[in-house]
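One such shown below:
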Amino acid sequence: MLERAIEVTKDAYTHLAYARFADDLVVLVDGHPRHAWLMQAIVERLREEFARLQVDVNEDKTKMVDLTRSETFGFLGFEFRRVRSVSGKWRAQFAPRMAKRTALLKKLKHEFRRHRSQPTGELIEQVNSILRGWTNYFRIGHSSQCFGFVRDWVEKKVRRHLMRARKRGGFGWKRWSRQWLYAELQLFDDYGIRYRNLLPKVLPTQ
C-alpha cells in the first residue's frame, strides 16, 4: 500500500518514504504545506490496512511529529531529528537514544561491581564484549559524540578499578597513560563510525 502511495504522489520529487523493521514502522512525509493532506490520508489508510489485517496499533508508541518544529522521534534505538549542515542545508541526524546509552552504562556498572575483587583481565574481557556489541549496532549515523562520552566513562571506571586494587583513591592519571590502557590492558577501542547503508528499505517478513 505504501509503495503504491509513493508512486501516486511523486512527481519530480519523492514526497513520501518509509522504513520498516519487523513491527516497527516509520512513515515520512514532505513537510511542505501543500502535502498536509497527504499526512492525514496516510494515517487513515494505514489504520484501514491494519484493521483489515487484524493488527492492533500500539497507541502509546504511535505519534506524529513535525521535524520542522525541532521535534524528534525514536526508531530502532536511534533518535532522529532535523538539523542544518555546515553548508546551511537541512539534513537528518540520528544518534543513540539517551535511554540506550543509560542502559549500556548500567550494564557496565554491574560488571565493574561484579569484578571488583577479580583479576583485571577478566573484567576487561567482559567489558570489551559488551562494548563491542553495542558499538557495532550504533556505529552508523552521528554517534561520535555519544561514543566519546562512553569511551571517557569506561576509561575512568577502569582507572578507578585499578586504583582500588591498590587500595588507593583517584584515577591514576600519572601512573597509566591512555595508550597503556589500550595497548597493555587491551581495552576496547574501536569507536569508529561507518557511513553506509546497512539495511534495505523494507525487510521481508519471515
Helices lie at 2-9, 36-52, 98-114, 120-138, 144-165, 178-183. The longest helix spans residues 144-165. Strands lie at 16-21, 24-29, 73-75, 78-84, 90-96.
